[in-house]
Design brief:
six-stranded mixed β-sheet; alpha/beta; four-stranded antiparallel β-sheet; about 15% strand; Malonyl-Coenzyme A Acyl Carrier Protein, domain 2; single chain; 13 helices; Alpha-Beta Plaits; globular
């Protein structure tokens, strides 16, 4: 049977109230509340209030790295644990940017608690020590980047995600100039909800506190196969340096997916808020018999999506082993 690959994404995928439909599940709620306790202890803030507090709307701005970093990590890990406890067990994890830390936690390399505390330190360091800027997702041929003077001179290629999807990073005020060019050229794009130009020279060298964020953590041998969207290859033993570089160097998600596909079809399950990676996998899978599922979408209904994933994969011998 095709192997199951869990997909974990990073900054730019988050939104207020993500995961609200899953809070009725005991596993998901437990991990979100557990993460909230860690965030409260470290910062005095409530992650759950940031997400689900009274008056919080999906359309509200949610781009403060010190709040979004822990929220994305906790959401993706909790959603993964929900599926695993339902018997849907991956053989492989593929992480993108921050998602590489989630993949390491799910694969047993680092404990959830230690990883979350380290990411809180990392977020604080990047938020206070990096040049202000941002990232823009562009729906066009990635070759457009090198062919366009404004893009190549004002921004850096932050990642190739699909045949017609790439991301650029730029500092302020170059970011607004890039956006103005795209708007005038009629190119479809989306400004991602974050204030840092990750995956570019403007976050390298990183702040010293970001470099040391994972110091002291014992990195165990992976219990699952780990694929990096940075290197587009398997990571036999992740390290603190690997997780740091995942935020700094360009993303190669398209190459990572195509590399997996060389060994045959897969079942991809996207744990990213909004189901962003599921759409990108589909765009990269022309002619493949692989299947793609997403827990979340811009339209919500996460509980319904999870039920479908469990029902579909439970019908395939070898995937589901019953809820623990």
């Amino acid at each position: 049977m095709p192997e199951i690959v869990f997909l974990f994404g990073g900054q730019g995928s988050q939104f207020r109230r993500m995961g609200e439909d899953l809070l009725g599940d005991d596993t998901f709620r437990w991990w979100m509340e557990h993460g909230d306790g860690i965030v409260r202890e470290a910062t005095g803030r409530s992650m759950l209030d940031d997400l689900y507090g009274p008056g919080r709307r999906i359309s509200d701005s949610f781009d403060d790295l010190e709040r979004t970093h822990p929220a994305i990590f906790a959401y993706e890990y909790a959603a993964a644990r929900l599926l695993i406890d339902a018997g849907i067990r991956p053989t492989t994890v593929l992480g993108v940017s921050l998602g590489e830390a989630v993949g390491c936690a799910v694969a047993g390399v680092v404990p959830f608690e230690s990883a979350l505390r380290s990411l809180l330190r990392q977020a604080r360091a990047f938020a206070s020590g990096c040049r202000a800027g941002g990232m823009i997702a562009i729906l066009d041929d990635p070759r457009t980047y090198s062919r366009t003077e404004v893009l190549s001179s004002r921004s850096e290629m932050a990642g190739v995600l699909g045949p017609s999807h790439f991301v650029v990073a730029a500092p302020d005020p170059e970011l607004s100039e890039v956006e103005a060019h795209l708007r005038a050229a009629g190119v479809l794009y989306s400004v991602l909800p974050l204030r840092q130009p990750f995956h570019s020279r403007w976050v390298d060298p990183p702040p010293s506190d970001a470099v040391s964020a994972f110091d002291g953590l014992a990195f165990a041998a992976p219990q699952l196969r780990i694929i990096s969207a940075r290197t587009a290859a398997e990571v036999p033993q992740p390290t603190p340096e690997h997780l740091l570089r995942a935020a700094i160097e360009p993303m190669n998600f398209r190459s990572a997916v195509l590399s997996l596909e060389k060994d045959g079809p897969r079942v991809y399950v996207d744990l990213t808020p909004g189901g962003t990676l599921a759409n990108l996998v589909n765009a990269n899978l022309a002619g493949s018999s692989s299947r793609v599922y997403a827990v979340s979408s811009p339209f919500g209904r996460e509980k319904q999506a999870v039920s479908r994933i469990i029902a579909d994969l439970a019908n395939d011998s070898g995937y589901a082993y019953g809820r623990r």
